[in-house]
Amino acid sequence: NAGVTQTPKFQVLKTGQSMTLQCAQDMNHNSMYWYRQDPGMGLRLIYYSASEGTTDKGEVPNGYNVSRLNKREFSLRLESAAPSQTSVYFCASSESVINQPQHFGDGTRLSIL
Amino acid sequence: DQQVKQNSPSLSVQEGRISILNCDYTNSMFDYFLWYKKYPAEGPTFLISISSIKDKNEDGRFTVFLNKSAKHLSLHIVPSQPGDSAVYFCAASGKGGTASKLTFGTGTRLQVTL
Questions:
Q1: Residue B51: phi, psi to the nearest 5?
Q2: Which residue, B28, B101, B65, B55, is CA-closest to A45?
Q3: How confident is the model at residue B94 (pLDDT cuts 50, 70, 90)?
């Protein structure tokens, strides 16, 4: 039961480097999401994809881009990493965006020096 | 502006007793509410949800109560077990275009003691 798989699990970057976080789900879900979690805060939505071929901004989209590669895969890209982007990143998926629980991967722990 | 608030950062309960985790929200447009459990180094795991047309939903040992007039949500765990020790997040979403956007609380760390 893979569910939502995120790669890599850990990454250390230098300021200014670029990085793509990968996410894949095997539940045939239509909708996918990227969140970040910072100490003492709840998860905050970065971007989401309601269905294949669409993407929209969430609460904290600045400094990020996303690609919905196909129904299974949704990637998050940091073009020029900044220390403020040090965080734990979670990918999630759901059957649809309307009143359906989102299922999460185990996260990518990203440190930017 | 924190639209979903979990005012208790931590809670300790004896095994076998009831655990009650609370959550308050300020946005009257929220109409779908969820509870997630999170263990260290893992992603949040969905526990239970409730739509605003209901005031109670049960699933085994877990019951969620919704008081719309008070804008208050609670999760009851009966009986509490050591494996329930984790951080619990409540989350909410609205209608229409905001349905996709889950707003999370900051979490409550539950410790179930022997």
A1: -90, 155
A2: B101
A3: confident
For residue A93, name the pLDDT band (cuts at 50, 70, 90). very high
Closest CA to B32 of B2, B64, B59: B64
Amino acid at site B60: G
pLDDT-derived band at B73, boundaries 50, 70, 90: very high
What is the per-residue pLDDT across A26-42, written as a single tens digit (0 to 9) for each? 999 999 999 999 988 88
The answer to whether the beta carbons of residues A82 and A92 sit under 8 Å apart is: no
**Which of B31, B42, B102 is opposite residue A106, by nearest beta carbon?**
B42
Helix or strand holding residue B32 (H, E): strand B32-38
A30-56: string of b/e by CB count within 10 Å (b at 16+)?
bbbbbbbbeeeebbbbbbbbbeeeebe
Give the number of other CB atoms < 10 A from CB of residue B53. 9
Chain A residues touching residue B49 (CB < 8 angstroms): 99, 101
- Could you tell me if A3 and A27 are in contact, meaning their C-beta atoms sit under 8 angstroms apart? yes
pLDDT of residue A97: 77
Please report the sign of the dihedral spanned by the C-alpha atoms of residue A60, residue A95, residue B2, residue B108: negative
Supply φ then ψ for residue B23, to 5 degrees: -150, 135
A-chain residues within 8 Å CB-CB of B101?
Answer: 45, 48, 58-59
B102/A102 Cβ within 8 A: yes
Q: How far apart are CA B95 and CA B55, in angstroms?
A: 18
Q: Which residues pair with B47 in a beta bridge?
A: none
pLDDT at B54 > cutoff 80: yes
